[in-house]
Amino acid sequence: MVKSFNVPAAILPPGTGDVPAAVEFRRVSKAFGQQSVLQNINLRLNTGEVVAICGPSGSGKSTLIRLINQLVTLSSGEIFIHQRPTAGLKGRQRRALLTGIGFVFQQFNLYSHLTALENVSLALIKIHRLSVAAAHQHAQEKLRQVGLADKTSFFPHQLSGGQQQRVAIARALATGRRYYFVR
Question: Looking at residue 126, what is its pLDDT?
Answer without folding.
Answer: 84
